[in-house]
TrEMBL record:
This is Ornithine cyclodeaminase. It comes from the Eukaryota. InterPro entries: NAD(P)-bd_dom_sf (IPR036291), ODC_Mu_crystall (IPR003462), ODC_N (IPR023401). Gene3D superfamilies: NAD(P)-binding Rossmann-like Domain, ornithine cyclodeaminase, domain 1. SUPFAM superfamilies: NAD(P)-binding Rossmann-fold domains. It comes from Pleodorina starrii. Belongs to the ornithine cyclodeaminase/mu-crystallin family.
Length: 342
């Protein structure tokens, strides 16, 4: 939080988008695998690893929609970045906030490539923990500053309006999802319930819009009617993962999609016409977390915010790990005899 405040949240979002875009351009360098997930009726716990051959990173993250009923967060996370040449960790960091920042940065980076030119208005359906970050990123990166807001819980919308008031947005709280999408060139869906839901029906979506669908991010959780997908050009992060977790889990296995790295690298088209419906089926991918970890490591240098933690065994002789343990034991025993052990 100190790092973000020292830089400015919108600058952080723009910087993160640049790091993510750079890593997507280097797509072939990365080890890629769908996240390793442990699913339960209550939610999911996931590990998201990747490496570019120089650094190795992973994120631990959970997703438990019911947590809010107990006063707990839906998502918590931490991550680690390590050197490939030695295997030694360089950075261990909180990633609950960082995940929200990188998710918003990714959405806006994608929208910059796919949204209609000159878009100024976004419908935000689902006004929970991610919504403010999405709004700030879309403005910082795409120039979108008019927000039409809807959530089934009016308190969530009131919270969003309260947090963004005075920050230069044109905010409209809406009573229905149908009302929220009126006049919107970008539609973001970001709901939390783990269920096959229909937040957007086919008749709600007109031609020419960009849909930023980021709420359907695990098996058994979707937000869009399948007919919307059939009418849209669908863009994803990593196809093998999205087919299991994203909106396209409800479609046939051969349903056509384009990976975003191809658009960024110029290997595939993005938006090609004013009437085209583009749809980003965003579930979050390990390379985005790797980019975020890389960014934090780079920006921490010289700030004084970094805390050095002694979490790696460091024996005087690398071959004498047991000797380090026994010397530590003898030292602890001496401290106890002296009454110094607390």
């Amino acid at each position: 939080m100190r790092l973000v405040h020292s830089i400015g949240v919108e600058t952080v979002l723009k910087d993160l988008a640049r790091y993510i875009e750079d890593d997507f351009r280097s797509w072939d360098l990365f080890d890629k695998t769908p996240r390793v997930a442990a699913h339960s009726e209550d939610g999911v716990i996931e590990l998201m690893p990747t490496s570019d051959g120089v650094s190795y990173g992973f994120k631990y993250v959970n997703g438990h929609p019911k947590n809010t009923k107990s006063g707990l967060q839906t998502v918590t996370a931490f991550g680690l970045l390590a050197r490939v040449d030695t295997g030694y960790p360089e950075l261990l960091t909180e990633m609950t906030l960082l995940t929200a920042l990188r998710t918003a940065a990714t959405s806006a980076m994608v929208a910059r490539h796919l949204a209609p030119k000159g878009a100024t208005t976004m419908a935000m359906i689902g006004n929970g923990a991610q919504s403010e970050f999405q709004a700030l990123a879309m403005r910082a990166i795409c120039g979108i500053d008019r927000l039409r807001l809807y959530d089934i819980d009016p308190a969530a919308t009131a919270k969003l309006v309260r947090n963004l008031s005075g920050l230069g947005f044109d905010l409209t709280a809406c009573k229905t999802a149908q009302e929220a999408i009126v006049g919107a060139q970008v539609i973001t869906t970001c709901t939390a319930d783990k269920q096959y839901a229909t937040i957007l029906t086919d008749n709600m979506v007109g031609s020419g819009v960009h849909i930023n669908a980021i709420g359907g991010d695990c098996p058994g959780k979707t937000e869009l009617h399948g007919d919307i997908l059939r009418r849209s050009d669908v863009f994803v992060e990593y196809t093998p993962q999205t087919r299991v977790e994203g909106e396209i889990q409800q479609m046939p296995a051969d349903f056509p999609v384009t990976e975003m790295w191809q658009v960024i690298a110029g290997a595939a088209p993005g938006r090609t016409s004013d009437r085209q419906i583009t749809l980003f089926d965003g579930v979050g991918f390990a390379i985005e977390d790797f980019s975020a970890l890389r960014y934090v490591r780079d920006r921490l240098e010289g700030t004084g915010f970094f805390q050095s933690l002694d979490i790696i065994a460091d024996p005087d002789d690398p071959r004498d790990l047991f000797g380090m343990l026994t010397r530590a034991g003898a030292s602890s025993a001496g401290m106890q005899r002296d009454g110094a052990m607390l």
